[in-house]
Amino acid sequence: MFRKNEIEAIDFREFMAGNHHTQKQSPRTKNVRAMSMFFPVITPSSFFPVYDTGFALFFALFLIGSAAIAGSALLQHMTAKAGSPAISEVISSVSGFIFPVVSEAEGRTTTETKDSVPTEI
């Protein structure tokens, strides 16, 4: 495992001329098939199961929500920079109310399924 590398001395003129080439030893080849059986297969489809309808819907809603929040922040910034602080404040107030309400309503609809039965305590 630990090998001591031998030190090779070459002539300075030969080194500066660029004529000296050391022969590199090829590394030992490892059995890739034996090593890969211990690790799971990592593909984009294993991270994002787009053929699962529930995940696809969640991912689409996540992208739409992210775009809406970014668009609202950009519009608020542009109106404030253009000299309309009142419009910017209205956008901020509406966004601060609408986004939590929509996210809470979306969270309730995705956790409830057809088979779930409400229970009373």
Count of beta strands: 0
Radius of gyration: 31 Å
- Residue-averaged pLDDT: 76
Structural class designation:
mainly alpha
Fraction in helix: 55-70%
The geometry reads as: elongated
Short précis:
The chain is an all-alpha fold and 121 residues long. Helix content is 59%, strand content 0%.
Produce the secondary structure layout:
Elements (H helix, E strand, L loop, with lengths): L11 H6 L14 H5 L7 H4 L5 H29 L3 H27 L10
Written description of the protein model:
The chain is mainly α. 59% of the residues lie in helices and 0% in strands. Helix 4 (53-81) runs antiparallel to helix 5. The N and C termini lie far apart (66 Å). The relative contact order is 0.06.
Throw out a few tags for this protein:
121 residues; mainly alpha; 5 helices
